[in-house]
From TrEMBL:
Catalysed reaction, written as an equation: [protein-PII]-L-tyrosine + UTP = [protein-PII]-uridylyl-L-tyrosine + diphosphate; [protein-PII]-uridylyl-L-tyrosine + H2O = [protein-PII]-L-tyrosine + UMP + H(+)
Ranges where the HD domain occurs: 496-619
Needed cofactors: Mg(2+)
BP terms from Gene Ontology: regulation of nitrogen utilization
Name this polypeptide is given: Bifunctional uridylyltransferase/uridylyl-removing enzyme
Keywords: Hydrolase, Magnesium, Multifunctional enzyme, Nucleotidyltransferase, Repeat, Transferase
Activity control: Uridylyltransferase (UTase) activity is inhibited by glutamine, while glutamine activates uridylyl-removing (UR) activity.
Organism annotation: Aquibium carbonis
Amino acid sequence: MAKIPLKLDEMIDGDTLRRELTALTARTDGDGSGTQARTAVLQTLRERLAAGRRRAEDMLMQDGGGTVCAVRLSHLMDEVIRALYDYAVTHVYRSKNPSSGERMAIVAVGGYGRGTLAPGSDIDLLFLLPYKQTPWGEQVVEYLLYMLWDLGLKVGHATRNIDECIRLSRTDITIRTAVLEARYLWGEGKLYDELMARFDHEVVRATGAEYVQAKLAERDERHRKAGASRYLVEPHVKDGKGGLRDLHTLFWIAKYFYRVRTGEELVEKGVFTREEYLQFVKAEDFLWAVRCHLHFQTGKAEERLHFDVQRDIAERLGYTSHPGLSAVERFMKHYFLVAKEVGDLTRIFCAALEEEQAKHVPGFNRFLQSFQRRRRKLAGTSDFIIDNDRITVADDAVFERDPVNLLRLFWFADKHGLEFHPDALKLVTRSLKLIDRNLRRNPEANQLFLDVMTSNRNPELNLRRMNEAGVLGKLIPDFGKIVAMMQFNMYHHYTVDEHLLRCIGVMAEIERGENEKLHPLAHKLVPGLKPQREVLYAAILLHDIAKGRPEDHSEAGARIARRICPHMGFSPAETETIAWLVENHLAMSMTAQTRDLNDRKTIDDFATVVQSVERLKMLLVLTICDIRGVGPGVWNGWKGQLLRTLYYETELLLTGGFSEVSRAKRAEQAREELAGALVGWPEKDRKRILALHYDNYLLIVDTKDQVRHAHLIREADAAKKVFTTAVNMHAFEAVTEITVLTPDHPRLLSVVAGACAAAGANIVDAQIFTTTDGRALDTILINREFERDEDELRRAQRVGKLIEDVLSGRTRLPDMIEKRTKPKRGQKVFRIEPLAQVRNSLSNRFSVIEVEGLDRPGLLSEITGAISDLSLDIASAHITTFGEKVIDTFYVTDLTGQKIENPTRQAAIRERLIETLSGGPGRGQKLKAAAE
């Protein structure tokens, strides 16, 4: 890696700055302590800092050096503090005859102590005294701090003498680290030298193991808080797993345990090879570049790479789009690969550290430690041994002798439930070149891999270890292409490889019988799928393997499966099943969430795709694993219910159980069932209710729900209520149903959707029915928000009341939406091309309108309002949100109950809906019209 010149003289000239500050005293009556002088000094320093930062940003954009940018910014701050200190002790608080106590060293500590600063970093200073504080020292420190604060800097500071520093370092690991990183800045250099000599002799010398343990525990806690996975798609650059703080922790431990001052000395100590050290330097440089760009771009100390800045940072770093991957996705893939490298370096470092610690254990204690470690043989192999319940290599030539051992290591670890010794993983990382075409086609190696992938213990854990060590990406090169790949959207929480491994974990969890209440049908079906276990696991691992390519990832993934599965040991029939599952892995999810499952054509079309009950079962399990593996909160009971409904209806059709009775006959039977359920009602009331409903309602709505609706209608009529709502909770499905009874109105669904948006309720489904007396009986399903039923009931009743208020005119919808809704996060960040289609092949009775676009508050209200304006009747609506993207489906007819067949009218519908999705002209008028 070419070395980038620091060019520190271009940042600031300390001598020139001192002369400028001195000259200011002459222009302010020679009094450096006066208000006028202070203001002038402050203004000069502010200008020099701003100019230096602008220059640092310009140089970063030119040479791309992250570490050198941090060094330049640190140098800029060094010169400002030095000049300010000299000005303070010369012109403000000059001591003509200083005593021995009136001495001071200014020491940079923390990140600043390393000589690197990000644009928004805190400035950590230690004012080091020989003895106790003096009035002179107090005045100087106070002057410096107030000036730095007035410059808008965040300053962490401590004023201590050497004895205090040593005493506190013994008891506080944070202070110990701060002193470890201490760097002389200005003032009395001998004080600094004395502190470091005493610190090394009195604190560091005998406490290496204690410090290592404390810092690694601190790192684990930091990872837990920042998000345990290094593959979160909005990573924390500083504190996240694989971030800068992990590299710093390695260096702190190295400095402390190995007593080195530079990273390069770790090569001499044998901790890293030269290549690994260069990886360390390169990773640090990249992370510093990202962090500096992030601070410059946001104008503050922002440490998390949020979606709304990722595109800008990618542009600043010079990334460009490639087929299948946008510039921001290429940048983030690079970021995660660097984070993975940091993990590799950590493992290598910990292995060396453990070995070094063992060397430093004296005589008898070393014998005891060896005895306690219990290095013993591993049954069935002479190539691996067990060291303290961790599998490790018998010698460094294990993989060279037989590359299949690269797979056996993970197989034995899984079989015996062993953790991995850092030495073993270090050797794996250094032996990846041995994984070639021969090994990929080796039958034993492939069977070992399949055993690990389908293990009934913890396949996710060992596959993740294989991935982090680089084995998985080398063994399946197509998998290697999606390692660290992110998708720039708010739906997917993890990188593609991490998502696939989590899907494997969900499958293993279902097999173990865990979370049965969450997936009752899958738990019932999985035991019967044992003969297809390997097929199902392979499909789960490969279903997104073609992400990031220009073509459809499902079709490309199927081609990859057909190519590699025979080498993995699968038969032609098994290979074809895996390829089919990969190609159709989205079919069940999309059908369940975006189609009307009460429409017979939906089930017919899906059954045509699936063709067999065996495939249906496997596709259901794959779909559950896929949705669950996306991230926390993505799966919910409503999605589970939709999948179960689709499964049962399709199974019935595939096994020949669908009724051939005519629609009219089935409607008559449903009417008779409702009549029987209303026995006990006055005959007049019963006849009136039975006469209210059209056949469509009777065929779609369950009898128990029909009875509930009948009670609602009777009570509303008795109370002479024109507008009424009722709430019914579905706790298991995680949705709440709101039934709306009101005079029918063409824009009714638009008004209801707007009221729900204003109340913060997300509609997931809607069924629209009209009674024979001209009223609408609509059922709206909204996502459940509260765990406790009583809390959810109160919330749903508030939503219902809001709907009634809007319908009755007591509340104006546009005002309410404007006041109560906030712009969706990502509205300005993501770009989704709006799409609208009118399809007549998806239903025998309805035209199906599909829309896709970027979500925003009140969008559903606008879309349904536009559909009403187009003189269309909505029979059902199916609302699906994937992060920032909406995919909504509406089953509609014209006002005469017919499909929309005219091409010109279809084109007008598409044009109007695309305009609405784009937030086009007249949006305010549409909202206003919805309220009228």
